[in-house]
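Problem: given the chain below (477 residues), write out its structure.
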Amino acid sequence: MILTIDIGTTNCKAALFDEKGKMNHYDVIALDSQYYLQDGSLINPIAFSIALHSLITRLPEKESIEAVIVTGSGPSLIPVSSPVMVKDGLLTAKAFTARLYLDRRAVRESSEVSNVWNSFIDASFFLPKALYVAHHEKEVYEKTTTFLSSYDYINYLFTGEKVAIMHAPDAIKWYYNDEALDALHLDKEKFAPLILPGTIIGTISSIASRTFNLPKDIKVIAGGPDFLISILGSAAVFPGMVCDRSGTSEGINICSTVNVDDNRLMSYLHPIAPYYNISGIISTSGKAISWAKELVGVESTSYEEVYHHVDMIAPGSENLVFLPYLMGERAPIWDPLAKGVFSGLSLSTSKWHLMRSVIEGVTFALRDVIETIEDIGQEVTTLRSIGGGVHVDTLQQIKANITQKEVAVPYQKESEMVGAMALAMHSLGHYTSLQEACTSLISFSKVYYPDVSLASLYDDLFGHYRHLYASLKGSWA
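Solution.
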């Protein structure tokens, strides 16, 4: 059995898969809200230990587990200051506040890091976060022994080994090397050795085995950032296929035959050789939709009912356009100061117009990334939609209509778990190639086709969406 664990921004999940890829167990735990700080962009790492303890305690068939693999949201940074220990029954380590991907305070540090790499590195990434700690939290910096991401931290709890997973061999600029650390006057000893996804880190430690009542010979395999694992879980492993992963944020990744050099997008080696992965990230997609539910007073209404009402509103929301930049934006504009905007409000605007406008606005952000990819000559053939809302017909049809692309939905909705399982299966030798593992283990349940009669309407509204940001850019403080 393969145990997969996903460390998210609001939930942590665990699943067990047999050797044929069948999910035999699934569990999810919400991170305790009392541990969040600063609008949810920071969290006390003890929340991860609490969630991990609950997930492992409730596992069946522990004696059958062959390996564990951990994925998680990011970029994140946890300043760790002690060895692994057990405290109040929890497997943990002394660590300072974890900075989640929504923490984008390191704007000045982003500029410094970008200058070192001669390439733009956003404030949300690992090295700007670490540099921010060095500049503004000197006591934390001095007491930190190692900076780790959330999933690296969980691997540390399991094994006692401090390693950091780099998502691709050519992705060093989003992480660190000795030259960059020297240039930024950061202590190299505080940064763990970099390894690649699929690496077998080791076996679980004695302290982890005792605490969780797990066999001592369980292998711990490097997973990595959820966006990368999602690519595998969507089986977007051939050129032209896009993995569109929706959650609190949204990651758009296309499998490409060529590399690109464009600061609006990120490009690096795809997990399937010899291809490249070209990606863009939207900061607040699912977060914008949940925010809108609260805004219009339907936070207690089920998403099923919300989408039913949204479906009753005509496409285009009566020309109401929403910019979903609620915590700045990443791709393709990379503007940490950008703000959310409703444009086109009138006395006839209802709460359901607002809801549909937000959903369409988030999808315009998706189209913005897709068109940027196409602008640089990369063909987009189909979207593989995974993550939040994946089985909501209204949402997936809106995606197909606004992008004018086919949208395919996997049969198994927990694509991060499936992708992690496929990576682990390949690492353990169950498949000869990672591409074979993905195509063998992943199937699709439904395809949404674009309504071509809506192409002109959404072309016009998308033009207004882009013009609106261009007009307001620079006016936010």
